[in-house]
Amino acid sequence: MICQSPDTTPEAEKVQIDLIRRSSISRRISIVRCLSQTVTYLSRRSIQRSRPYLSKRELDIAFVSNHYGQELAERLRLYLEQKKP
Fold first, then answer.
1. Is 14 within 8 Å of 1 (Cβ atoms)?
2. pTM of the predicted model as reported, rounded to 2 decimal places
3. 1, part of any domain
4. Number of folded domains in the chain?
């Protein structure tokens, strides 16, 4: 087996994979969900740190632009402008 992580020994990786395989589906989904939330939080925090002047709405649009492309971000911006009270 080829090691997937350069900072993990093949033996440790085998143990990790075995633990994942023996986990219930709900546990695996929980792990993936938690990881996804963490990545989203870190990405948003990085954008906010690099551009602290952005409003929450502008931060949301920048996040969408970074992860889903400028076209979708522009569509979101237009949608949010129409939705303004």
1. yes
2. 0.73
3. no
4. 1
